[in-house]
Request: fold
Amino acid sequence: MTVRNIKNITPIKIKDPTYVDLYSPWDLKKIGKVECISKKEVDQILDVSSNAFKNNKKYLSKIKRLEILKNCRNKLLKNSRKFTNIIALEGGKPLKDSKIEVERAVNGLELCAEALKKSHGTEIPMNINKASVNKIAFTRKFPVGPVLAISAFNHPLNLVIHQIGPAIAAGCPIIIKPSLETPVSCYEFIKLLLESGLPKEFCQMINIKNHIITQKFVKDPRISFLSFIGSSDVGWKLKTMMPPGAKCAMEHGGVGSVIIDKDADIQKILPSILRGAFYHAGQVCVSIQKVIIHEDLIDQFTELIKKAILKIKVGDPRKITTDVGPLIRPSEVKRIDKVIKKSISEGAELICGGFAKNETTYECTVLKNPKENSTVSSHEIFGPVLCLYSFNTIDEAIQKANHDKFAFQSSVYTKNIDTAILCYENLDAKSVFINEQTAFRVDWMPFGGIKHSGEAVGGIEYSFSDLLYDKLIIINSNNITL
Reply:
């Protein structure tokens, strides 16, 4: 499978586009090219979005929005196999996981429609003192305005649906910039939206090579909301550039920690730990990076995980038997190898892995007791690397799990309800899972980090709510007496 030129989907004409070649992360073969905008198009694209918002009553009633979401959902379901292959091709996600991503995306559109159906305002109490006599008051939901969405490579379809879907449901025109390495899923999805009846002004896809152009969009007062999924350093920098009054949602990474208490059944939980650590080669913002396990169990657990990893198939993502595919680019393979080797030189014990299988893939790696100040312990690795640490008391485990900067999702495996509650109360995280791994997610739950890990809350319904504001109306009439 190959793709042709991935164009910017906007109502304006790109006069002098630059092109970036698109490569498969697995075999590095060229699979297409990406058309990028220049500075000259920024104002035109923003004008299109701004004007669409000003005239949104002309374009998109609630009935029309629901119809578009339903039609697009049906088209996406019909094209499931096509999108599954695209995700594997451009992002390197194994076919079995790409299929699940498409299933989630279909459900995501259903959730967008449900969120719109349930959306409503609130009556504000009146006639309860002299000032409020003969009055009635209530709120209604209104869209905040044009949205700029910057997406990431690791879920090239599902992430853009989490950004585009709620915007359409809320009635907000959206300009979306997918990852320059995985634009095909976004491109093909927007084509389905347009076929489903969405006016082209309401969803513009832009490809950008120059970061200065991205910043021009972020700084512009015509943007009312910034949705950013990506690295912490980039996200917080962009937030400082936003105009007054603009809102944002930031989804960054973390250093996912799992505590395994001495009463846990380690054989039973091992598959979920492996899944949480090595799904999509660890390129997930809530991937398990640290397992903090009771000292009575660590040796047995180490042997179990060492044997289990031998059964994990690393290779071509287009094969249904592959468990772990490539990293997004060869430079990531080199970066991870450097971090692992440095950790070993600092005293970590290599249990398994620790080498590149080829230019694009890295073996699933387990390190035991790396130093707390090693990069592999203190920074998000975003690769197929799992670190094991031992603890004696649960307070010690919580201390090792907590990070001074990142706080996203953490978990604890225990049969003791008091231990579970203690961890829930004291772990620095936006979500704490009991007897479940950190990479668990369903698309209707709140999702997001605190500290450096993010701001606001993801999840379809929560993203939808962020794109609306309450507008109050007060009616004064002598006929209002109750």
In short: The chain has a mean pLDDT of 96. The chain has two domains: 18-252+453-471, 256-434. The domain at 18-252+453-471 is CATH 3.40.605.10 (Aldehyde Dehydrogenase; Chain A, domain 1). The two ends are 67 Å apart (CA to CA).
